[in-house]
Design goal:
Blueprint: H1 2-19, E1 36-38, E2 43-46, E3 51-54, H2 55-60, H3 63-70, H4 76-92, E4 98-100, H5 101-108, H6 118-137, H7 143-173
Antiparallel strand pairs: 1-4, 2-3
Helix pairs in contact: 1-7, 6-7
Length: 174
C-alpha cells in the first residue's frame, strides 16, 4: 500500500505540469488583419549606436555600408550569410515597396531556441538550480536558448533522480 501511495504521489508531482498547460488566446499565431505593409516604414535597430534602418534600405545596402552602420567588421561567412538574407528579403518586397505580412510574420515568430544548446543543457543537468542561475546571468546572443535548455536539463536530472530512487525503493522492498 505504501508503494502505491508513493507511486501515485510521484506521478502527481511529475505530471502536474502538463495539466497546467492551456491555450492562451493572446499567443495567437494568426497574422494581423492588414496583410500589406510598406517596407520603408518598418524600422529595425542596427548595432549598439541606436541606429535604425528600414527594411527597404536593408535589402539594398552594401556589406561595407552595413559594417560601418553596425560598427564592426563581418567575417567572410557572415558576409555570405548577409547577402543570402538580403536576397530573401528582396524577394519578399514587392515592386511597389509593399511586403506580404504573412511571410514576415512567420519569420518574426520563428523560434530561435528550438536548436539544442549543449552548454545550457549540461549546466541544468549537472548543477540544477545553480546551473539555471548561471544560464540567466550569462549574456550572449544565444541566452534564451541557454536558459531554455538549462531548464530542460534540470528537469531531466530531477526526473532521472526520482526514477533511480523509485528503482532503489522497489529493489529494497522485495
Amino acid at each position: 500500500m505504501k508503494k502505491l501511495v508513493f507511486l501515485l504521489g510521484l506521478f502527481a508531482i511529475c505530471f502536474s505540469g502538463y495539466a497546467a498547460v492551456g491555450e492562451a488566446s493572446f499567443l495567437s499565431t494568426e497574422p494581423p488583419v492588414d496583410p500589406m505593409l510598406n517596407a520603408s516604414d518598418i524600422k529595425l535597430p542596427v548595432g549598439n549606436g541606436g541606429y535604425t534602418i528600414s527594411l527597404m534600405d536593408l535589402a539594398y545596402i552594401s556589406v561595407k555600408d552595413f559594417e560601418i552602420l553596425q560598427g564592426q567588421k563581418l567575417s567572410f561567412f557572415k558576409k555570405i550569410g548577409f547577402k543570402l538574407q538580403q536576397r530573401k528579403l528582396r524577394r519578399l518586397i514587392q515592386p511597389d515597396g509593399s511586403i506580404q505580412n504573412i511571410a514576415l510574420f512567420k519569420a518574426a515568430i520563428a523560434d530561435d531556441t528550438a536548436k539544442f544548446h549543449a552548454g545550457g543543457f549540461f549546466l541544468g543537468f549537472f548543477f540544477l538550480g545553480l546551473g539555471i542561475l548561471v544560464a540567466y546571468l550569462l549574456k550572449g546572443e544565444k541566452r534564451k536558448a541557454r536558459i531554455k535548455w538549462a531548464l530542460i536539463g534540470a528537469g531531466v536530472s530531477i526526473l532521472l533522480f526520482f526514477l533511480i530512487i523509485l528503482v532503489i525503493v522497489n529493489t529494497l522492498g522485495k
